[in-house]
Write a structure and sequence with these properties.
The protein is of the alpha+beta class. Helices cover about 35% and strands about 20% of the residues. It has two domains: about 60 residues, Peptide chain release factor 3, domain III (Alpha-Beta Plaits); about 60 residues, Peptide chain release factor 3, domain III (Alpha-Beta Plaits, 2-Layer Sandwich). It contains four helices and eight strands. A six-stranded antiparallel beta sheet has the order 3-2-6-7-5-8. A two-stranded antiparallel ribbon has the order 1-4. Strand 6 and strand 7 form a beta hairpin.
Length: about 140
């Protein structure tokens, strides 16, 4: 996502925070740095978010495709296992609005391959399945 007027960064963050809390989108911040990534069910949802950012927060953004096609929230039985996994895939790690760790996927095979390599890592399609609820304090 490219913000056309960089002076509107604060408003963009407010808009993304609000839309993320509403469940309109998922907002991911890559652990390795870089632009925030948006996750949605389909193209229409992205267009709605783009329209709402413009109308409600005066943020004109251009959405760009990225290499990732899905995300899985991850948990592990021990902190050491989780640390080992995140060190193996630093470019694929991101945190969401609840600061929950997610693994970014480029294809349906990514999870299967990672699971074979790290059998003690648990991949969840939804944050709630991982037991990682969004905190009420916000």
């Amino acid at each position: 996502m490219i913000l056309k007027n960089p002076l509107r960064t604060k408003q963009l963050q407010q808009g993304l925070d609000q839309l993320g809390e509403e469940g309109a989108i998922q907002v991911f911040k890559p652990e390795a740095g870089g632009a925030m990534l948006l996750g949605a069910v389909g193209q229409l949802q992205f267009e709605v978010v783009q329209h709402r950012l413009k109308a409600e927060y005066d943020c004109d953004v251009r959405l760009e495709n990225c290499q990732y096609t899905s995300a899985r929230w991850i948990t592990a039985d021990t902190p050491a296992e989780l640390r080992e996994f995140t060190y193996a895939y630093p470019q694929r790690m991101a945190t969401d609005a609840a600061n929950a760790l997610a693994y970014l996927c480029t294809s349906p095979y990514d999870v299967r391959l990672a699971q074979e390599r790290f059998p003690k890592i648990h991949f969840h399609p939804l944050r709630e399945h991982a037991g990682l609820a969004l905190s009420a304090a916000g």
